[in-house]
Every structure is written in C-alpha cells, then in structure tokens.
Amino acid sequence: MVTSIDSTLEGLRSSTRNSLTGGSGGGGFRRLLIGAAVLFVFFFVIKPTVAYIEPGHVGIVIHRGGGGVDPQPLGPGFHFRNPAMTAIQEYPTFMQTLVLTKDATEGSPNNDEINVNSVEGQPLSLDVSMSFELDPTKVPALYSTFRTDVTTIAHGFIKQAIRQALQEVVGNEEIAAILGPKKAEVVTRTQTLLQKKLDAYGIEVRQFTLNEFRAPKAVMDAISLKNVMQQQSLTAQNELQKNTFQAQGDSIKAAGRAKAILAEAEAQAKANDLLSRSITQTLVQYEMAKRWNGQMPQVTGGAMPMMQLPGASKPE
Q1: Which CATH number among 3.50.50.60, 3.40.50.10860, 3.30.60.50, 3.30.479.30 corresponds to the domain 96-215?
Q2: Do 154 and 115 form a contact (C-beta atoms < 8 A)?
Q3: Among 244, 283, 305, 310, which residue is least crowded by beta carbons within 10 Å?
C-alpha cells in the first residue's frame, strides 16, 4: 500500500513539472492549468484521505458520525480514511518517563513532589519517577476514558495513582525504616500496587524509583541521633563479645594446660608406684652382682660388705 501511494504521488509531481515546463502559447497555458488542477486535487482531495502514523505510535480512529472510537488502533504506516467522517489521533506507545519532583529543572517547572504521611503521622515529601509504556491494543479505550493526550493523563491520573499507592505503603511504615532497611521494599511494593491500579487502562509500569525523601528537620535530627547511638551500641557490643571470646579462649587454654600437667603428674606417680613395687632386695643384689669386678672393697674399721656372697659367713 505504501509503495502504491508513493508511486501515485510521484506521478502527480511529474505531471505538474511537465505542465509547468511545457511548450509556449496556448498549449503551455493549458498544461499550467492542468498542473494546478492536479495539485489542487492532491492537496485538497487525495492527501486528506491518507493518514501516516509515525513509528512508536498508534492511530485512534474517531468516528465523527456518532460512532465513537474504533476499538482497533492503526499501526505505523499509511492508511486511507474518510476525512469527512473520521479523524485520527496519534498516541505514543514507546517508553516514557514521568518525573515528579520539587526541582523546577526536572520534570515540569511546577512543584510536582508527592506529599504523604508516615505511620507516625509525620508529613513526608517525595521526589519520584516512573517509566511506563502504553499497551497498543488498549489505547483506544484509554482515549475513550480520558479524551486527552498522554502528557495530561500522566500529570493528572497517573500522578494521583502514584500518590495513592505511596500513601498506602508509606502510611504503614516508620520514617526510620523507610530511610533505612525498608527503602527497597517500599519501592517494590509501591510499583506492584501501581501496576494493579493502572493495568486496566493499558499503562504498563516498567520502573518506579524513589529519588529523594524529605521530612521535618526535627524528625531527621532525631533519626540521625538514633542511628549514631545504635552504631555506638553495636560497636560496644562487638567489643564486649570480642573480649568475652578472648577470655573464654584464655580460660580454655589454661584449663588445657592444667589438665596436661595433672595428667603428667598422674603418669609420673603411677610410674613411681610401679617402680617402687618392683624394686626388691633380690633385684638390688642382682644388679650389684652384675656390676661387681670380683675385688673385695678395701675398707677398714670392720665395715661390712654391701653384698653377701652365697656361703659366706657374716664376720663376728
């Protein structure tokens, strides 16, 4: 279809050029009139019957005769239409990002921050952003509901949906938890809730981000002080636990050394007992006999020899 339209347009342009550059006299004037007529037909008769939809968009066919909106959107490319009975409204289906912030240099020049209350009842101001796409098959229904462009829908209906979702999630959490351990959970829960609210309109949430968080200064100071005290307490607990482990380790080492000494003493005592019970007079005499060189001790004073030989009589 696109090739056929391009060919027709090129033929019209060629006819016009030929008419304007034709011969002189009446023939040239006639060709000029024909060219003007062709241009008139093209711009005022043919062109309005052709609609071109840009890539990344869909066309919504609006029936002027009271038939409402065609439920089937037009895809990118050329389309023939009846200009007297229909109008075409283009809607983007590519990914868009809605930025809601207090900063006038982002998003819109207005203050678009989201204001909610925490579970303590404290006022909170949030800067958020949401990336979304439109389901092409649901765009006609979206237009039928709002009858306006996507930008207006985003800064109206979608912004209100974001505020409601954040209030439902943030309103059940403490400020300190939102700023700290539960921030990622708050973002995930809010995005899930948003998708449920927007799904019926064909608005698909691709990403939701919590960019900045503002609370009353007194509340932020109290949270900072609490965090410092908790950190100090944690440091003290870690130091105490470290000292406790070290003391337990020293105690275990001391007990081990004492046990080893006791075991050694008991072993020595048992050895001494066995040794004392095994030493007899006969054993002593035997050991002395093994070491005797056969000479009598050279002593005076009537000393008795330590070893008695068999058959020897004691001196008188």
Answers
A1: 3.30.479.30
A2: no
A3: 310
Burial (0-12, 13-18, 19+ Cβ within 10 Å), 78: middle
Residue 38 CB contacts under 8 Å (≥ 6 apart), including other chains: 12, 15, 16, 19
Identify the residue whose tokens are 């100071």.
Answer: 221
CA end-to-end span of the chain: 153
Question: Concatenated DSSP letters for 122-151?
Answer: -EEEEEEEEEEEE-GGGHHHHHHHH-S-HH
Q: Which residues of the chain form beta strands (DSSP E)?
A: 50-53, 57-63, 68-69, 77-80, 86-92, 96-100, 114-117, 123-134, 203-214
Phi, psi for 124 (deg, rounded to 5)? -130, 145
Of 107, 95, 111, 114, residue with least CA distance to 165: 114
- Under a CB-based contact definition with an 8 Å cutoff, are residues 196 and 204 in contact? no
Cα–Cα distance measured from residue 164 to residue 117, given in angstroms and rounded to the nearest whole number? 11
Determine the length of the chain: 316
Residue 18: phi, psi to the nearest 5? -65, -40
Residue 93 scores a pLDDT above 80 = yes
Q: Which residues contact 303 (CB under 8 A, 6 or more apart)?
A: 297
Q: What is the pTM of this model?
A: 0.59
- Buried b / exposed e over 46-70, threshold 16 CB at 10 Å, is eeeeebebeeebbbbbbeeeeeebe
Q: For 258-299, how does the pLDDT look when each residue is reduced to its tens digit (9 = 90+)?
A: 787 777 777 767 766 665 666 666 656 666 666 666 666 565
